Amino acid sequence: MVQLEKGIARGRKRFDAFIGYFQSFSNTHAPVEILREKYEPVIAHPDVIGIAIGTRPDCFSSEIYDYLADVNRRTYLSVELGIQTIHNDTLRKINRSHSFEESLATIHELADRNIEVVVHVMLGLPGETHAMMMETAEKIAQLPVQGIKIHQLMVIRGTVLEKQYFSKRKLKVLELEEYAELVGEFLIRLRPDQIIHRLMADSRFETGLVAPEWSADKRSSLVFIQNYLDKNQLYQGKYFKK
Fold it and tell me: Rounded to whole angstroms, how far apart are CA atoms 236 and 44?
């Protein structure tokens, strides 16, 4: 609650209402009793109009689904799922410890309860081809998903990816030009009504960023991506097929 109060204080001059964002870690990885202790004080805050919960598709139970359905009846609720890709070979390679089938089941369980779903996907994962990434876009376009956050693969200090990046068989990361092209190709395959919450991730060298370096300059990178989309007349849903 201290973090929430500080965030509201910082934003009060610009905003009249706020959404409590449970972002770090897997925020459904606990018994319902603990989730209630975390969520309910935020929901009850007079300046809060809803909550957003970041989590993984393998951190749910029937009791949690039912509790979230109750929350959804009382306030705005958005559940963010880190699915990253639809390809199980890639999920195993990056040690996600869940399958796309689990992601699919969770998306449908939430949708059946009229809960908003936002999925996180990552472009440039090890071994993924252009065709594989576009298959992810096309599949997401067919699912009951209301929002999407798109990220680039980043190498962070102290991770397995860092070791792979500096190995003899160097892990490849995307150049900004490559990423802009992939984002454009990804967007044109999505449904026009799906909300794009994020076009790229960002980090800082002082907090561990190794590569790609353009991830540290979010403003300029977003301008580059937007200019690429405008130049090539690419827009969300352009090639969407029902």
Answer: 36
Cβ neighbours of 132 (radius 10 Å): 15
The confidence band for 194, taking pLDDT boundaries of 50, 70 and 90, is very high
Secondary structure of residue 134 in the 3-state scheme: helix
Q: b/e string for 104-123 if b means 16 or more Cβ within 10 A?
A: eebbebbeebebbbbbbbbb
Contacts of 225 by beta carbon, 8 Å cutoff, 6+ apart: 176, 179, 180, 183, 199, 200
Please give the structure tokens belonging to residue 177.
């030009």
Q: What does the alpha-carbon distance between residue 37 and residue 63 come to, in Å, rounded to a whole number?
A: 15
**CB-based contacts of 209: which residues, under 8 Å, 6+ apart?**
154, 155, 156, 157, 203, 215, 216
Asked whether the whole model's pTM tops 0.85, one would answer yes
Mean pLDDT, rounded, for 95-99: 95
- Residue-wise pLDDT tens digits, 47-75: 999 999 999 999 999 999 999 999 999 99
